[in-house]
């Protein structure tokens, strides 16, 4: 057993690059601890086994060689984009150029935005409640001090995708400011907040009929995205927002991608607790990765718990890939809903259903609930596990 510590400048995808590096050396990660500083540095500590030699010097030398090799092979943001994505971001004069494709003009004058208060804050940006031309909006603004080529690429990708989508279960894109340092995306304001906050911060819960409505809303939004060849890649409760009418909409397309012509993609993204095993393993993947994540979201709705809450994200990821770990389905779960969870979590992506089928299954369960719900405990109306 060995403990390996990496200290480096923090950057997107750093953790996945380090875990991949260790895997290349045949090391098995038993524990992982990640610390980030406010000034942009990261300390990543791994406890590993699988090194066949006693000498630590040999391990250090092997790590140094692998790091040197990886640094040469790790693509820069411009290298990693296919031709379609290479056209998404170009620095011309003082703004980012995102190709025009016949869609209405969406560039917003930053001076017309009025910021009211901060909703949330992250490493790379802040989310504000504000107004634009008297309309209530949400404003996601990138932190100018953290701007780099990769972050600008993701920003351009998000704008490129969001301006194309129009669906009642997808958060409505209003416009964007593409003139650095004021890079921001403006969307409709969702007054109900995120499903994650409702479940985990407000300690709310959904009765079965409402739970099914939420799941159907999400499934319809995801089905629309997949029909338009968009893979979300980071589907989780925190990226599901509720409006004043309790309509749930899919949000946050910062890491979404237009599906490649081959139908599969590589390189990890997303959040480990919700991530499909093929994505964790850096294998080729397609839209079925979103289906796996949806299964975890559905479990969240049922339990009100964070997936694998007693494990670190990396421990959960290792369990999902190496041991077939999945969240425990509650005993009171209706049989058809439990079966849906299990099919969404299949290790083989081809065995998972499409969202069109998921919508049909959920609507059928909702009809059965509606028929029998009067005067009966909603959680026992269907034959349970």
UniProtKB/TrEMBL annotation:
Q: Name residues in a coiled coil.
A: none
| MF (Gene Ontology) | ATP binding; protein serine/threonine kinase activity
Q: Which UniProt keywords apply?
A: ATP-binding, Kinase, Nucleotide-binding, Phosphoprotein, Serine/threonine-protein kinase, Transferase
> Where in the numbering of this chain does the ACT domain appear?
3-77
Top-rank EC class of the record's enzyme: transferase
Q: SMART domains given for it?
A: S_TKc (SM00220)
User: Which named protein is this?
Assistant: non-specific serine/threonine protein kinase
Which gene name belongs to this protein? LOC102598360
């Amino acid at each position: 057993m060995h403990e390996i510590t990496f200290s480096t400048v923090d950057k997107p995808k750093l953790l996945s690059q380090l875990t991949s590096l260790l895997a290349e050396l045949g090391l098995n990660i038993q524990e992982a601890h990640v610390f980030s500083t406010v000034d942009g540095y990261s300390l990543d500590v791994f406890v590993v086994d699988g090194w066949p030699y006693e000498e630590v010097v040999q391990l250090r030398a092997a790590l140094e060689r692998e790091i040197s090799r990886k640094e040469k092979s790790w693509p820069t943001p411009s290298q990693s984009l296919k031709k379609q994505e290479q056209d998404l971001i170009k620095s011309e004069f003082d703004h980012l150029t995102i190709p025009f494709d016949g869609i209405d003009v969406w560039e917003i004058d930053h001076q017309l935005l009025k910021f009211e208060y901060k909703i949330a804050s992250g490493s790379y940006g802040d989310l504000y409640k504000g107004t634009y031309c008297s309309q209530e909006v949400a404003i996601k603004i990138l932190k100018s001090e953290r701007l780099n080529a990769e972050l600008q690429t993701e920003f351009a990708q998000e704008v490129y995708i969001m301006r194309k989508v129009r669906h009642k279960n997808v958060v409505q894109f209003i416009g964007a400011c593409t003139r650095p340092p004021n890079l921001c995306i403006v969307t409709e304001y969702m007054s109900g907040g995120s499903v994650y906050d409702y479940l985990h911060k407000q300690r709310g819960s959904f009765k079965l009929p409402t739970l099914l409505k939420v799941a159907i809303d999400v499934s319809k939004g995801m089905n629309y995205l997949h029909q338009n060849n968009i893979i979300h890649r980071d589907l989780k409760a925190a990226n599901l927002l509720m409006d004043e009418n309790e309509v749930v909409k899919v949000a946050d397309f910062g890491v979404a991608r237009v599906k490649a012509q081959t139908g599969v993609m590589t390189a990890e993204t997303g959040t480990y607790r919700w991530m499909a095993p093929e994505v964790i393993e850096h294998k080729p993947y397609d839209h079925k990765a979103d289906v796996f994540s949806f299964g975890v979201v559905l479990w969240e709705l049922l339990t009100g718990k964070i997936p694998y809450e007693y494990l670190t994200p990396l421990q959960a990821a290792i369990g999902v890939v190496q041991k077939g770990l999945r969240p425990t389905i509650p005993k009171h779960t209706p049989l058809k809903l439990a079966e849906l969870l299990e099919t969404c979590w299949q290790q083989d992506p081809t065995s998972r259903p499409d969202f069109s089928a998921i919508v049909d299954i959920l609507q059928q369960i909702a009809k059965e609930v509606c028929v029998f719900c009067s005067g009966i405990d909603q959680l026992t109306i269907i034959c349970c596990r």
